[in-house]
């Protein structure tokens, strides 16, 4: 075979190989032109559409109503019951440091492992009274306890509207958000009143008649 023939043959083989690699595999599913809308434009268009239809105003009013309701009557603390028998027990608030407490210069102020009782430093100035304002009998009992202790009581709700009670009683009322305090103190029934006795806290779960 002449040199020219060999060149032509090699060129044909290479061309056939390239054509094979570029072979079309067909179309899988429908195809569309690339014309993606900017995300912000898409969001704004949706908002304008909802505003024109009145849906946006309705959503805003619903969100405002939910927020108002959550403030007026927060989610009640789960797992609590009305006290049907009196129970008294004590809680030791002492804690042990799990790490060193240092100052700005790195000097150790309190070493890890140190056990401290906050009641050795500060005192409970008022009794803590936990109750559910959704229960009229508990509200009445709480009012009686406040009068018994001559107002030296901090009312703390585990259910109901603290705003409504503040207006009715004309005094500050608190709420145990997510039950952090009752869980810490081991309270399972309300009303319950917490008092300080020495370096311990006394918890009395009070029967509602």
From TrEMBL:
List compositional bias (Polar residues) regions by residue number: 59-72
Q: Which UniProt keywords apply?
A: Signal
Transmembrane portions of the chain: none
Highest taxon in the source lineage:
Bacteria
Q: Which residues form the signal peptide?
A: 1-22
Family annotation (InterPro entries): TraW
List every stretch annotated Disordered: 54-80
Name the NCBIfam families on file: TraW (TIGR02743)
The name this protein carries in UniProt is Type-F conjugative transfer system protein TraW
> Which source organism?
Roseateles aquatilis
């Amino acid at each position: 075979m002449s040199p020219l023939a060999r060149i032509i043959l090699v060129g044909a083989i290479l061309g056939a190989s390239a054509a094979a690699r570029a072979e079309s595999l067909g179309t899988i599913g429908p195809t569309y032109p690339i014309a993606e809308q900017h995300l912000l434009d898409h969001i704004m268009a949706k908002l304008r559409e909802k505003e024109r239809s009145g849906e946006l105003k309705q959503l805003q009013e619903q969100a405002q109503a939910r927020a108002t309701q959550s403030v007026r009557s927060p989610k009640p603390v789960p797992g609590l019951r009305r006290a049907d028998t009196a129970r008294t027990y004590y809680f030791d608030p002492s804690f042990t440091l799990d790490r060193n407490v240092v100052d700005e210069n790195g000097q150790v102020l309190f070493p890890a492992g140190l056990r401290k009782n906050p009641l050795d430093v500060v005192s409970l100035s008022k009794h803590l009274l936990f109750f559910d304002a959704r229960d009229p009998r508990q509200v009445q009992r709480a009012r009686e306890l406040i009068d018994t202790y001559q107002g030296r009581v901090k009312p703390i709700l585990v259910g109901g509207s603290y705003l409504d009670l503040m207006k009715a009683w004309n005094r500050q009322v608190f709420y145990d958000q997510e039950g952090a305090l009752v869980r810490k103190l081991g309270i399972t029934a309300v009303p319950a009143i917490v008092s300080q006795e020495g370096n311990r806290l006394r918890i009395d779960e009070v029967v509602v008649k």
